[in-house]
Amino acid sequence: MLRIAVPNKGSLSTPATDMLREAGYRQRRDTRELVLTDVDNDVEFFFLRPRDVAVYVGSGTVDVGITGRDLLLDSGAHAVEHLPLGFAGSTFRFAAPAGTVTTVEEIAGKRVASSYTTLVAAHLADKGVEPAAIVHLDGAVESSVRLGVADVIADVVETGTTLRAAGLDVFGDPILRSEAVLIRRADTDAPAGIDVLTRRLQGVITAREYVLLDYDVPMGLLDAAVAVTPGFESPTVSPLHNGQSAAVRSMVRRADTNRVMDALYEVGARGILVTQILASRL
Ligand SMILES: Nc1ncnc2c1ncn2[C@@H]1O[C@H](COP(=O)(O)OP(=O)(O)OP(=O)(O)O)[C@@H](O)[C@H]1O
Ligand SMILES: O=P(O)(O)OC[C@H]1O[C@H](OP(=O)(O)OP(=O)(O)O)[C@H](O)[C@@H]1O
Ligand SMILES: [Mg+2]
Q1: Together in a domain, 78 and 184
Q2: Distance 256 CA to ligand 3 centre (A)
């Protein structure tokens, strides 16, 4: 039975549970449930603190887990990224009161507050910058400068709203671009059952990222239309009963849908329909 660690709280928890449910797994109804066995799918879920997921996976007590790339790197656990999951995207960045610190080099001799101190220490060591101190805080890191325990922070930035509210500006390149990832233990054979889980999660990712596009096009314009919608391998083309047109079906990136529909219309395609994909195995 594959043992899967899932975040029980925080930004990752609900989207992780939603994705597993979409992938056909049973999920808990009550947030106080700590363990859930899905007998039909031969998997067991352990609901753990997001920060602890990598620790359990690295120690081999659970086989795989869902966590953030930033949390994985900060944990120093013996675990590796297996599949990016496409949600909980964020950047991890330095910030300071507007105009005070504007380059990473200027962090030398200053105090840096973060909830991700291992990640910050490794990054600064890599850049050859020696801070005066790296202060570990559990959260609300943006308040640390105003309250006088740090000069600079390193924190998760999603929309930037929290930074703006605290009067802080980001500086330097992003330390990291993070998203939710499926992780497994490093340097060991892939656990039995991970392939099915991976295909199922990949299926959800594809269903979220792509739509199906159907359209009719006169035979003479078929090549031009197909060039607009090349699909994954090659689009499906079926002759229409009138003998003069073809019906085409192709997968298109959801974000490109309207641009592609406009281009197809220009080429001469008509009856252009978009359909949502509910599940997929490619
Ligand atoms: N706006 C966000 N705030 C915090 N974390 C985010 C955000 N967007 C994405 N994430 C990701 O979520 C993970 C952090 O989750 P975690 O549950 O530890 O913190 P949290 O969402 O801040 O929860 P908490 O309520 O405990 O503060 C990281 O991988 C982080 O990159
Ligand atoms: O760029 P934004 O969209 O504003 O999001 C980023 C903020 O959200 C998180 O804080 P959270 O609300 O989890 O509080 P915490 O700092 O106490 O963890 C994170 O630590 C940042 O502070
Ligand atoms: Mg938080």
Answers
A1: yes
A2: 33
The residue out of 133, 164, 192 marking a domain boundary is 192
**Domain contains 65:** yes
Closest approach atom of ligand 2 to CA 164: 4
Q: Specify if 82 maps to a domain.
A: yes
Global confidence as pTM: 0.93
**Among the three residues 161, 192, 223, which one is the final residue of a domain in this structure?**
192
- Asked, for residue 282, whether it belongs to a domain, the answer is no
Inter-CA distances, 37 with 23, 99, 202, 218, 220, Å? 15, 53, 22, 54, 56
Residue 60 shares a structural domain with residue 164: no
Residues within a 6 A CB radius of ligand 1: 7, 9-12, 50-51, 68, 70-71, 88, 90, 139, 156, 158, 178
Q: What ipTM does the predicted assembly reach? A: 0.95
Question: Which H or E run contains 84?
Answer: strand 79-84
Q: Which strands form 35-38's sheet, in the order they lie side by side?
A: 35-38, 43-48, 2-7, 64-68, 180-185, 79-84
Nearest C-alpha to atom 12 of ligand 2 is from which residue? 140
For the chain, how many structural domains are there in total?
3
Q: 68: CA distance to ligand 3 center in Å?
A: 12
Q: How far apart are CA 71 and CA 47, in angstroms?
A: 16
Residue 132: which domain range?
Answer: 90-176
Q: Which atom of ligand 2 is nearest to the CA of 10?
A: 13
Which atom of ligand 2 is closest in space to residue 155's alpha carbon?
20
The answer to whether residues 265 and 136 belong to one domain is no
Among the residue ranges 92-96, 143-147, 278-282, the one predicted with the least confidence is 278-282
Dump pLDDT digits (tens) for 46-93.
Answer: 999 999 999 999 999 999 999 999 999 999 999 999 999 999 999 999
